[in-house]
Fold this protein.
Amino acid sequence: MSLWERFRDGLRRTRDTIAGGVGAALGLSGAVDPATLERLEEALLLADVGPDTTDRLIERARSLMGAERGLELRGALERAAVELLRPAEGPVEFAPAPGQRPWVALIVGVNGAGKTTLAGKLAARFARAGHPSLLVAADTFRAAASEQLVVWAGRAGVEIVRARDGADPAAVVHDGLSAAVARGTEVVLVDTAGRLHTQQNLMAELEKVTRVCGRVVPGAPHHTLLVLDGTQGLNALAQAREFGRVAKVTSLAVTKLDGTSRGGAVLAIRDQLGLPISVVGLGEGLDDWERFDAESYARGLFE
């Protein structure tokens, strides 16, 4: 499938929520009556776009329709969403930069967001693209976390560095990065333990892991990817806001979008946090993720 088709398929439930509330009104052009605007607002709120972002999206869509005769509401919403989703400085790629070897990325977030699964999927894509990759199982807190990552490493066909449950995560990261340097590995993905911002001991542990990364590989970590669960809707926004206060986040990944009607939260997350979204998860399979594309995402919501 094309990128647009992947997004359209993955966002079906969210799109049905929006279209179900507005119906044929998405095909209207010209002035939009108050009753239709009210239904559109309700539909966007049901999709977890959030009140502030909903107001901003509708106002921009109306402005576009007023400036361009014949523009349908659907097209105006798509264009307004693209403007909101696309960073002014351009898209942020979750990918190794030229000259950085190894390129080190931390995968962080709360429990249950899908960090370990996503780390395995990312490693598989990098390996197939010709980037020798290594997974580091730095989640020694959750029972069987490293075993789960071993399974994903096998599926991805990449190497893994792990330790026993309860080992010091910073020590595991030190060993993993040292091995990557010695082997000439190009990409290192560090799967960290799920944690909440209120768990001060785990947040301190994450800071230690970050320091160790820079000690072994100058400039590392080169990317910190905060993974959010798309089924959490606006709750993911609250999690990201709090997490970002204690961790230097480079970009966001939003997972499980294929299983939720609350995918509109991506608009609110981007709008409210100002952080770029680089990766979205659209299914359970090894290849069921995509680099974030604002145009494809917006079309997937409204078309």
Notes: The mean pLDDT is 90. The CA atoms of residues 171 and 212 lie 8 Å apart. The beta strands are 103-109, 133-137, 159-161, 187-191, 223-229, 251-255, 277-281, 289-291.
